[in-house]
Every structure is written in C-alpha cells, then in structure tokens.
Amino acid sequence: MTPTALPDLDFAACERVRYARDPAFDGVIFIGVKSTRIYCRPICPVRQPLSRNVGYFASAAAAERAGFRPCLRCRPETAPLSPAWNGTRATVDRALRLIDEGALDTAGVEALAARLGMGGRHLTRLFRRHLDTTPLAAARTARVQRAKRLIDTTDLGMTEIALAAGFGSLRSFNAAFQQVYRRAPTAIRRGGSGRRLP
Predict the structure, then answer these.
(1) What global pTM score does this model have?
(2) Which one of 14, 31, 40, 92 is the catalytic residue?
(3) Distance between CA 68 and CA 62 in Å, rounded?
C-alpha cells in the first residue's frame, strides 16, 4: 500500500496502516484516540487502542480542531511534511513564496528576513546552504521567469512587462535577459520561443 492508497481516509485502510505502524504514512495520517483525546503518528510505539476508540485525520491541525492534543511520546509536530520536520528548509520555502509574490521587488533582503523573524545575513546563509544561491539571485530569477511568461502569453510592450514582472527599470530588465538568455527580450518574442494566448 502507498500513501496515495487512502482516499478520504478509508477506515479499514487506516486501520491496516496503524496496526502495521507503517512509516510510509508518517505525516500522511494522524490517529486520534477518543478515550484519551490524544492524537498520534502511525509509528507511535504506544499500545494500540481498540478500533472503536480511534478516528483518523489528514493533518495534525484537523486533529487539534477536533479537540485532540498531541502525543508527547511520538511528537506529531516532528512528523514528515511538518514545518519542524522540514527545519530551516521550511523557512527557505516560505521565503521563496514571498519572493515569487514580489517581496524583493520593492524592499530589500533585510525587510524579507524581518517578515520571517530573522536577520538578512542568516537568511542569506540559509539560501546558500539549501539552494546554493542568495535571496537576491532567487528574486532576479523569479522576475525573469515572470517576464518570460508575460512575453510568451501577452502582447504587452517591453516596458509594461518589465514593470509588471518587478524590474525597477527597462535597463535592468534588458540586462537580466541578456545575462540569462544571451539575447534581448524583443528577440525572444520575435523568435517565437513561446506561444502567445489569443
């Protein structure tokens, strides 16, 4: 059985996972024990409760919303797919989402880092550790990708595309495209490298 084999948390399938203590489902399902009001991971080493005393949840948040509290033995907050399990990579992923939304288009790395509850130097260290790049380089790549999508899918002028993609000027837009694609943005549009929407 694979983690995708539990549509809508089928009780019988979840029971098999629980009794097998299958690590493949760790972080995929959570077990709520009705008699103790505690929820666990499927790998929890405690004695198995009776089937009539359990319910299954797709997330720790769902179990907590139903009134269960986390097990102190198996520590559901450390399950795979949780922010704690992802560690600092979760912070980098959140930073990337903010960058993709334009967080570095109008503010600097320090402002982004402050939104994440840390300093700019630490955020840059995390980017180097996990992505082998910097937040500013990631932001430039995000801008170029946004601009390329606009070139491929719209008839906007290059100045409009540059501003919509987050570039501060047409000059920086052209320089970024020259560095990444080794050609000007207008040459990419003329070359028909993408398909424009009607």
Answers:
(1) 0.55
(2) 40
(3) 9
